[in-house]
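A protein record pairs a chain with a discrete description of its three-dimensional fold. The following entry can be read in just this way.
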Amino acid sequence: MLTKEEIKMKIAQGEGLHVEFKTASEALPRNVFETICAFLNRKGGYIFLGVKDNGKLEGIGEKFIPEILKTLANGINNAQILMPTAFVETEVFDIGGKKIICIYIPESSQAHSHKGFYYDRREEGDYKLTTHHLIAGLYLRKQDVYSENRIFPQLKITDFVAADFDYVRNVVSIFDKKHSWVNMNNEDILRSAKMYLQDEQTGKSGYTLAAALVFGKPETIAKVCPQYRTDALCRKENLLRYDDRDIVDCNLLNAYERLMAFVRKHTPDRFYLEGDVRLSIRDVIFREMIMNMLIHREFYSYFRATLTIYKDTVVTENGNIPYIIGRITPENLKPHTKNPTIFAFFKQLHWVEDLGSGVRNMYKYCPIYVKGAVPVMEENDIFKQIVLYEKEKPSVKQGSTNTEKVLALLLENPKITAKEMVETTKISLRTIRRILDNLVNQDIIERQGSRKDGIWVIKDKNNLAL
């Protein structure tokens, strides 16, 4: 449990992914079990009873505390309220003369429901999982094993693309003519790469999902992982549909080449010398971006992976089982591979380097590719990457009327919320959020401070013609 000073610090930092405030002057709030369920299903957290949403201490009447603790304990151990039941820690603290209750909820290895509904946690708070896909994703996140190791005893060597094994032998021989794969047959390469395993529970052996994804024919992949594919879209002119499209449903070896070809077709390369060697800085950046999307994604997620090229940015999104939540930077980087077998395979081909090197390379080369640009990599249930490839001067006149309205409101009140903009402009919340995201991506505005108490800052007001 936390110390009194640690509690003061957490309250001062405000609510977030792991912290929730609830008023409870006389009784336990009804929605406390929704938050407990959400914390159990995510990464755990702390609930502080007796604290208002803004962090102000309200306190709890001392005579009500025993009944609140009793109600909480009964609910936690009641399968009709929380299923399966769970263990939490509680402690009463006196902070500045006011009594509060600290509830610590550890992350659970199981998926929990409250009164038949599943809840998850985000920075904005608790949210109910309303679709089968979201609930399936929760259970998938709780699995103890990597999905890449799932065994398919029915797969045979004929389910793989034979020519791809020859390609792999050629690639590894470029770096090491004595590499063991050079003289192995196809089956032995898969066994060496740990893509042929035995299920310890059933005793059955077979090729794994990783084998199908790396070497499989399209029809093979469709059988074992029907949701797998990547949509490559170019939306420079037609934002509602696309200017160009490639549906990439081939195995990962060929998907990498297809996606790189799509990026080369629609983005510029720039002359760059590293020492006295000419380097395709575009290829370096987008190799890392594409390999991140292909290797570190959750292949059983129902979220379809996309690579979208806009007028000045390239954006990738893919299903993900997050290791941390939030933006990834070289400072907070905690290298962690989501699919270690697939990662180790591509490391043999020298398509990826050591864990973490990709993030550092993108932060190194993106500001060179477009002066001052910083890549965006956001870790959540959806892993998102944004790379700027063209720098345009901010110009509101070229934007839509809705964009002008949003910028005008930000100039007038930097603390305004998206919901307040909806009330003022009658523009939908979804559109408001899309406009804000676009303005951030275009480097016109930035968010400073927390989601709850921060402000919007317009970077170059002189270039805005409102």
Observations:
- The first helix runs from residue 4 to 13.
